[in-house]
Amino acid sequence: MDGYQLNPIEVRVLGALAEKQALTPDAYPMTLNALIGACNQLTSREPVMKLEEGEIQNALDALIANKLVAERTPAGSRVSKYEHRIPYEWNIDGARLAALCLLMLRGAQTSAEIRARSGRIYNFTSSDEVETALMALADKYPPMVQKLPRQPGSREARWAHLLSDNQVVEATDDCGTIDLGLTGRVVALEAQVEALKTRLAQLEAQLED
To answer: Domain 92-208 falls in which CATH fold?
Structure first.
């Protein structure tokens, strides 16, 4: 597969498959019904989606065509099951796969957020290990992730995946304005809110002193 031309639903499906392989190996590969539930979870998903069966099936068909997902029919079963093929097609596993999985499911995040949210997906020993994995993904050709400009008031910069067109971030020459697309604008607004929260906490602390 040349480049990463996935749409948001395909990204969600692929991320859900990668997550459930780690979290519920006994129920993996996944049936279509199980995958619908995983994609539409109300927790550990940003944004929360409400996808229909047809939408997820279309995404699966596209991912299968790109060899990113395989369909299996276990012996004695009439129900198809699905598994991702990320390690084979993109040559990533372990820490890199876990970091990418979390970005696919929860949007742009800092290294510390990825480590805190990784849970049973992967046991990151430190934020530095997350950063190393992300840098390896950024060094691939084409790059799979990109570090976003650090927002004023934020301690760390966030990382975003580059698997979908609406996630690509292009910095301007003055580095002051960036064209983020819809997803990126949401990320930027979230960062501004966090910066305001930090500033408010600082002011409250000063008043208390």
So the answer is: Arc Repressor Mutant, subunit A (1.10.10)
